[in-house]
From TrEMBL:
Signal peptide: none
Name of this protein: Podospora anserina S mat+ genomic DNA chromosome 6, supercontig 2
Molecular function GO terms recorded: DNA binding
Record-stated family: Belongs to the TBP family.
A cellular-component GO term for this protein: nucleus
Keyword annotations: DNA-binding, Nucleus, Transcription, Transcription regulation
GO annotation (BP), single: DNA-templated transcription initiation
Length: 223
């Protein structure tokens, strides 16, 4: 029951803006990095792979995976002995899938027999700039009960976690986090779909206008 009440309070405070088409004049957050995983369904001899493959790095004393890079699309794969592969650096899900297949093909050329299973988007990272400075303390104080956290002694940005609820089929949506900086730069992380990524930004962006710095010549905030 407590969780239900908490969700109701979030809905009362934060507007439920879900549209993928932002209103005119809104900043458009840019997708910067898709982190995806693939199950290769085979064991990988990392020492052998490091000797046979090109554009790889393997330092087992520092990290227990082979780091493989390709140029098109420009991505990096972490390949583990268990057959798990993590691919980062692509700017769309389609490019991430293409990159993962190219990394898998590179393993085949080295003599392994990898499969391409369980392709999953684990994290979408993007950024935006709202174009004005933000009073983080005021923002945190007002929304501390609905996911806002600001501890400047530890981190210079405000963390604002978004609880997006459930999809129509009953499955839970991801819970993206916005990292908000005084300069107006916003980093969105933790989304697993582009829909959730855009919804998280759309819900929080309208809140910033109440916390513009008074020194901003365009600010209408009363201090």
């Amino acid at each position: 029951m407590a969780d239900s009440n908490q969700m109701d309070s979030r809905q009362d405070i934060i507007p439920e803006t879900e549209s993928h088409e932002y209103p005119p004049g809104w900043p458009i957050p840019k997708l910067q990095n898709f982190v995806v995983t693939v199950n290769l369904d085979c064991r990988i001899d990392l020492n052998y792979l490091a000797q046979r493959a090109r554009n790889v790095e393997y330092r087992p004393r520092r990290f227990n995976a082979v780091i493989m890079r390709i140029r098109d699309p420009r991505t990096t794969a972490l390949i583990f002995a268990t057959g798990r592969m993590v691919v980062t650096g692509a700017k769309s899900e389609a490019l991430a899938r293409l990159a993962a297949k190219k990394h898998t093909y590179a393993l085949q050329k080295c003599g392994f027999t990898p499969k391409f299973r369980d392709f999953t988007v684990q994290n979408i990272i993007g950024s935006a700039n709202v174009g004005f400075n933000i009073r983080l303390e005021g923002l945190a104080n007002k929304y501390v009960t609905v996911g806002a956290s600001f501890v400047p002694e530890i981190f210079p940005g405000l963390s604002f976690k978004q609880y997006l609820g459930y999809r129509a089929d009953g499955t839970p949506r991801s819970c993206p986090t916005l990292l908000i900086f005084t300069t107006g730069k916003i980093v969105v992380t933790g989304a697993k779909t582009e829909e959730d990524f855009r919804a998280a930004f759309a819900r929080v962006y309208p809140l910033f206008f109440d916390f513009r710095f008074a020194s901003d010549p365009n600010s209408k905030t009363q201090v």
